[in-house]
């Protein structure tokens, strides 16, 4: 290919086309992630990836885009906001009878939305160039999305290891378009976390083991989505009513005061998943689950893990006869994995019932004797 194009103008046009396609920001960088290789090797050596063997499968190719797509000379990095206009975060997290689903998963599967837009962007660039090799990626291949977005100037890496943007917080998706043109690269932005450590302190399971270092094996998103077997008992009470993912480290971040809600219809919450009652979700059979999660990122965890997660959340909620009955009723009609978590939930709830009964008995005695309630 001979380069007779005005690459500076093309880079400018690419950003305009990206905005026209619905991306909230577009940046450009080269393929050099050499500075990430040592960090990646150390993270894998510590086993922080847990059962996500695909993180180690391709070795250092994750830090070498040009090996993944031969001929790649530039990476176009994009971000798209996903926070719904009415997020109902506190309303859901504060109600233990309701299920909390990470806000990114309330609408249509973002992989499909972003990949389709990136493909359109690649085709638009191809039209302008006459000849172009490109390949879109959205969290679907060994590509280090966050470091590339960092280099492309879309934000900086926060202490929780997510990308932060001063004008948009962190509630956005990332995607990449690998192309064989040497486009002018954008400059990274200066990190702005300062001395803040709110994300480290808020994490329910202490998964952020140090600034900029995440032990995924402890992360609630990993435990409820990636982990295939039993959830370790030490983490079950800490999960609360989170049945798919966790947003705590983002919710506490001061920069998310500037988070921008998305007008994208595909990311609008599905009614049955926005603030659902745990017992309603627990009553679903597999066909209902598959129908309700069609086109949703939630479907990929499968019905068994869905039930496993809800059982834990029910065990962390209030002890009532309806919950106990619902757990017992389903126990003989599910898998061994789910049965294990049902048994744990029942034990938790029965312990709460005993404690509540003792408290009630103490209150009655205090009232009968005319003593202060705390006596």
Automatic annotation (TrEMBL):
Q: Which organism is it from?
A: Tolumonas auensis (strain DSM 9187 / NBRC 110442 / TA 4)
Q: What is the role of the protein in this entry?
A: Catalyzes the conversion of epoxyqueuosine (oQ) to queuosine (Q), which is a hypermodified base found in the wobble positions of tRNA(Asp), tRNA(Asn), tRNA(His) and tRNA(Tyr).
Chain positions recorded as [4Fe-4S] cluster 2 binding sites: 203, 219, 246, 249
Mind telling me which Gene3D superfamilies this protein's record contains? 3.30.70.20
SUBUNIT field: Monomer.
Domain 4Fe-4S ferredoxin-type: from-to ranges: 181-213
- Pathway(s) it belongs to: tRNA modification; tRNA-queuosine biosynthesis
What keywords tag this UniProt record? 4Fe-4S, Cobalamin, Cobalt, Cytoplasm, Iron, Iron-sulfur, Metal-binding, Oxidoreductase, Queuosine biosynthesis, tRNA processing
By its UniProt entry, which SUPFAM superfamilies does this protein fall under?
4Fe-4S ferredoxins
Similarity annotation: Belongs to the QueG family.
Annotated GO biological processes are: tRNA queuosine(34) biosynthetic process
- Cite the InterPro entries for this sequence: 4Fe4S_Fe-S-bd (IPR017896), 4Fe4S_Fe_S_CS (IPR017900), QueG (IPR004453), QueG_DUF1730 (IPR013542)
**UniProt keyword Iron, yes or no:** yes
Q: Where in the cell is it found?
A: Cytoplasm
What one GO molecular function would you report for this record? cobalamin binding
Q: Where does [4Fe-4S] cluster 1 bind?
A: 193, 196, 199, 253
The note describing how and how many cofactors are bound reads:
Binds 2 [4Fe-4S] clusters per monomer.
Pfam families with a match to the protein in the record: Fer4_16, QueG_DUF1730
Protein name (record)? Epoxyqueuosine reductase
Query: Can you cite an annotated GO cellular component?
Result: cytoplasm
The gene from which this protein is expressed is queG
EC class, as a word, reads oxidoreductase
The UniProt record gives the binding positions of cob(II)alamin as 62, 139, 157, 163, 174, 221, 246-247
Q: Which residues act catalytically here?
A: 139
> Which cofactors must be present for this protein to function?
cob(II)alamin; [4Fe-4S] cluster
Q: Which reaction does this enzyme catalyse, per its entry?
A: epoxyqueuosine(34) in tRNA + AH2 = queuosine(34) in tRNA + A + H2O
